[in-house]
C-alpha cells in the first residue's frame, strides 16, 4: 500500500495538474528551466525533480519528540533540472566519478563544483545504515564536505547526494555519473515553509533519477532518506517537512505520525455546505529570517532565548526535550522499551507510551486520555521540584529552568555519560535548561493536534491512510460523524482557529520560538478576521499561517497589509510573495524529458 507507492515519474504535466491553467503555469516554469539548463550546459536536462514546501497547520516542534503533526504541501516548490555530464558536448568529461557542477538560477547563489571522495571500507562501519541497506558488508563509502558552520545553498544539494551515494553506490563495481544540475524555485528561504526540505527532497530525487536508481524506490523509503540527508546540514530535525513534501496530495492535509513507525493519513479541513462559507489558509511572512544553522557561541551570562543559531535555538530545544523525557520517566518510575538505548535516547512520545502501558500502536483516543493524565504530573520537572524544594508557587507556567549541573543530577547519569548521550553531537552553552516549559508545550501541542484532527474528521467524510504501517491506529474512531451544516462548519472553523491560537501562545510563551514580529503579525491576523493564526515551521521568524473565511480573503490581506509595518507600501508581486492564500498541493515527483 502507500509506503509502497512508488515515487511518481511523469512525462506530461497535465497528469499532475488536471487544472489546465495550473498545468500551463507550471509547464511554462518547467520549460524555462529546461531552456536555461540547455543554454548553460549545452544539452537538454534528462529530468526535472520537483519538491514542494509545506505549511504546518498545527503541531510545532513535536516531530522530533515523535508526536503527530498536521502539515500540507504548498504550491510553491523547488525544481532541480539535471542531466549526465557526459551527454554534454561542450564540457569535457571530468576524471573523477560523480563530479557535480551545480548552478542556481538566482545569481546570489554562486556556481559550485564538487566531487565526492571515495573511501574503501572492508566492512560495515555504520550498523544502522547497513541495516537500512539490507547488506552485510559495504565495500565503499562516500564522503562530501558539507560546511555546517555557515548556511550555503549547495549544502542542501550535497545532503541529498550524500544519501544517494551511500545507499546505492556501495559496491566497488558501480560509480555515479558526473552530473550537471540547475536549481530554481519559489519557496521563500528562511520562512518556515521548508525550502530546505524541498531542496533536499528535490536533490535526492534528482541524483536518484540521473543515476537510474529511481526504479522501485517507494515514497516511504524516500522520506527516510531525505530525513537522514537533511540532518547532514546540521539541524537535528524531525521528519515532518520531508514527509509532507513527499506524501502530500492535493486538497488534503496530512496527519503524520512517527511512532512506532512513519504513517500518514489524509485529512481534509471541514467543508462548508454553503458556497462561500469555506476557509482557506493564508501564509504571511513576518520578513524576519529564521536561520537555524548559524552557530552562535554564548557567554555564560547570556540568555540563549534571544540569540540566533541552530545550536542555541533548534538543537538546544531538541536536547532539552530529550533530557526532559529521561527525567520524566525517572520521576514517574516508568520502564522504557529496550529499544531506547543510550545511543538513541527515548523521546517524550516513548515516555507517554510507557506511561499509558498499552502495546503500540496506541489509538488516538487513548493517546489523548494519556496526554491529559500525564500533563497533570509534569510539575515534577519544575526547577523547584528537581531541587527538592517543597511547595510550588507562582504562575503554573512560570519556571526558571535548571542549571547544567542540576540537569545532569536529575538525569541520574554521570557527567561523562550524560554529555556523551545528550551533548556530544551539539554545541550548546546555556545557563538554564527549560525542562518543564518545553515538556508542557510538547504535550499540550500533541493534544491540540489530536483535537484538530478529530474536528476535521467529524466534519468530513473521508480519511485515508496512505502509509498504513500502523493502520490499527485508525481504530481511533473519528468522533461520531455530525450532520454537516453551515452553522456546524462555522463552529468547527472557530474551534480549529482557537486551537491554532493556543498553539501560537504555547510556542511563544513555553517554547520561546516566536519573536515580537510573529506575535504582532498573528495578533493582527486575528483582528483582521482570521478564525485563528499561528507561526508555522521552526519560528524565530518566518511565516504565520491563518485560517481565514474564503469570502474574506481579499479584505483580510488588505487589512493585514495596512497594519503590519513591514508590509506597508508593498504591492503586486512583492505583496503576493509575502502574503498569499494557499491550498494543499501535490507532493514531490520527477518529470522525465523525452
Ligand atoms: P522549518 O523551520 O520549517 O524547516 C523545522 C524542522 C521540522 C520541525 C519544525 C518545527 C527542519 C528541516 N525542519 O522546520 O522538522 O521540527 O522546525 O515544528 O529543520
Ligand atoms: Mg527548514
UniProtKB/TrEMBL annotation:
SUPFAM superfamilies in alphabetical order: GHMP Kinase, C-terminal domain (SSF55060), Ribosomal protein S5 domain 2-like (SSF54211)
UniProt KW RNA-binding keyword: no
Key word Transferase present: yes
Keywords: ATP-binding, Kinase, Nucleotide-binding, Transferase
Boundaries of every Galactokinase N-terminal domain copy: 36-84
GHMP kinase N-terminal domain ranges (all copies): 165-248
Domain spans labelled GHMP kinase C-terminal: 493-565
Region of interest called Disordered, as start-end residue ranges on this chain: 84-106, 467-488
Family stated for the protein in its record: Belongs to the GHMP kinase family. GalK subfamily.
Name assigned to this protein: Galactokinase
Amino acid at each position: 500500500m502507500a509506503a509502497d507507492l512508488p515515487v511518481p515519474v511523469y512525462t506530461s504535466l497535465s497528469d499532475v495538474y488536471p487544472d489546465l491553467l495550473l498545468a500551463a503555469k507550471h509547464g511554462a516554469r518547467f520549460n524555462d528551466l529546461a531552456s536555461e539548463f540547455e543554454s548553460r550546459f549545452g544539452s537538454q536536462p534528462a529530468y526535472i525533480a520537483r519538491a514542494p514546501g509545506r505549511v504546518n497547520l498545527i503541531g510545532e516542534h513535536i516531530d522530533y519528540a515523535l508526536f503527530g503533526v498536521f502539515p500540507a504541501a504548498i504550491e510553491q516548490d523547488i525544481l532541480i533540472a539535471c542531466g549526465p555530464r557526459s551527454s554534454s558536448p561542450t564540457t569535457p568529461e571530468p576524471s573523477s566519478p560523480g563530479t557535480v557542477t551545480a548552478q542556481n538560477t538566482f545569481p546570489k547563489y554562486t556556481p559550485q563544483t564538487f566531487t565526492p571522495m571515495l573511501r574503501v571500507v572492508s566492512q560495515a562501519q555504520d550498523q544502522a545504515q547497513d541495516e537500512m541497506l539490507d547488506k552485510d558488508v559495504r565495500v565503499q563509502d562516500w564522503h562530501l564536505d558539507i560546511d555546517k558552520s555557515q548556511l550555503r545553498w549547495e549544502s542542501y544539494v550535497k545532503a541529498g547526494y550524500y544519501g544517494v551515494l551511500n545507499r546505492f553506490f556501495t559496491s566497488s563495481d558501480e560509480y555515479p555519473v558526473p552530473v550537471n544540475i540547475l536549481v530554481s524555485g519559489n519557496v521563500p528561504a528562511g520562512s518556515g515553509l521548508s525550502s530546505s526540505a524541498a531542496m533536499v527532497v528535490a536533490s535526492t530525487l534528482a541524483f536518484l533519477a540521473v543515476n537510474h536508481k529511481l526504479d522501485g524506490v517507494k515514497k516511504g523509503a524516500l522520506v527516510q532518506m531525505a530525513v537522514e540527508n537533511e540532518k547532514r546540514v546540521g539541524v537535528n530535525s524531525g521528519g515532518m517537512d520531508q514527509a509532507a513534501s513527499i506524501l502530500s496530495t492535493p486538497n488534503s492535509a496530512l496527519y503524520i505520525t512517527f511512532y512506532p513507525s512513519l504513517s500518514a493519513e489524509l485529512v481534509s479541513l471541514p467543508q462548508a455546505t454553503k458556497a462561500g462559507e469555506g476557509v482557506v489558509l493564508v501564509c504571511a511572512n513576518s520578513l524576519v529570517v529564521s536561520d537555524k544553522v548559524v552557530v552562535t557561541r554564548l557567554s555564560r551570562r547570556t540568555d540563549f532565548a534571544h540569540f540566533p543559531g541552530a545550536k542555541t535555538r533548534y538543537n538546544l530545544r531538541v536536547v532539552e526535550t530529550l533530557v526532559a523525557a529521561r527525567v520524566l520517566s525517572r520521576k514517574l518510575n516508568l520502564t522504557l522499551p529496550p529499544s531506547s538505548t543510550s545511543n538513541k535516547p527515548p523521546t517524550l512520545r516513548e515516555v507517554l507510551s510507557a506511561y499509558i502501558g498499552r502495546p503500540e500502536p496506541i489509538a488516538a483516543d487513548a493517546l489523548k486520555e494519556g496526554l491529559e493524565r500525564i500533563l497533570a504530573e509534569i510539575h515534577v520537572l519544575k526547577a523547584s521540584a528537581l531541587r527538592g524544594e517543597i511547595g510550588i508557587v507562582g504562575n503554573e507556567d512560570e519556571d526558571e529552568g535548571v542549571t547544567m549541573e542540576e540537569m545532569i543530577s536529575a538525569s541520574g547519569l554521570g557527567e561523562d555519560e550524560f554529555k556523551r548521550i545528550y551533548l556530544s553531537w551539539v554545541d550548546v552553552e546555556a545557563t538554564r535548561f527549560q525542562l518543564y516549559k518545553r515538556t508542557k508545550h510538547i504535550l499540550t501541542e500533541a493534544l491540540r493536534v489530536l483535537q484538530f484532527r478529530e474536528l476535521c474528521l467529524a466534519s468530513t467524510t473521508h480519511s485515508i491512510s496512505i502509509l498504513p504501517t500502523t493502520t490499527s491506529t485508525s481504530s481511533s474512531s473519528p468522533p461520531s460523524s455530525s450532520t454537516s451544516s453551515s452553522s456546524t462548519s462555522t463552529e468547527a472553523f472557530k474551534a480549529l482557529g482557537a486551537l491554532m491560537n493556543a498553539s501560537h501562545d504555547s510556542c511563544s510563551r513555553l517554547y520561546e520560538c516566536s519573536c515580537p514580529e510573529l506575535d504582532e503579525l498573528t495578533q493582527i491576523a486575528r483582528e483582521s478576521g482570521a478564525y485563528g493564526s499561528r507561526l508555522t515551521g521552526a519560528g524565530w521568524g518566518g511565516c504565520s499561517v491563518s485560517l481565514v473565511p474564503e469570502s474574506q480573503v481579499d479584505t483580510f490581506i488588505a487589512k493585514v497589509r495596512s497594519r503590519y509595518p513591514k508590509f506597508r507600501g508593498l504591492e503586486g508581486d512583492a505583496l503576493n510573495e509575502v502574503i498569499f492564500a494557499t491550498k494543499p498541493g501535490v507532493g514531490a515527483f520527477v518529470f522525465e524529458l523525452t
